[in-house]
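Service request form, structural biology core

Requester: graduate student, group of Dr. S.
Request type: structure prediction, single chain
Budget code: on file
Notes: please return the result as structure tokens.

Sequence provided:
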Amino acid sequence: MAGTLLLLLLLPPLLPASMLHHSGDNMAMEVKNMPLKVGHTLTVTGVPNAGADRFGLNILSGTDNAFHMSVWWKATSVGHNVDEMVIYNTYQGGVWEEEIHQGGFPFKQKELFKFTVTLTHEEFLVILSDGSEVHFPNRLGASEYLDFTLWGGVLIRSFEIN
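Core staff response, request fulfilled:
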């Protein structure tokens, strides 16, 4: 329960507590019914935990995952033999689609990061804190997504949609 209070206190007042749900001890934060519409930008800031293997963001549409961003420090457990990698993907109809590995790796454990995700009809435009851009296709084609999860070894400082 202490983790729930900590997350609530660190989020900006723009996010009502009624939209935030904590998923027990698995270090996941859910944001429900907060629309990300075409033309809007999601901004996330946080600090990865010391020793974290990974963390990520999911933008959801029902049981499908329209946008999956997974930040890995040791990606050998997912079939990649690299130390640092960001993986982007979609989970649709019970199946993971083709991964995309683009952009830089500006993430350092115990250091503040910021990234943005802008929704268009065609893509999710990701801008990482080092300025690198990732153009990830909007494979589900929706013009609005309402639900998000942030998970893994990270302390989220802010989550905002403009």
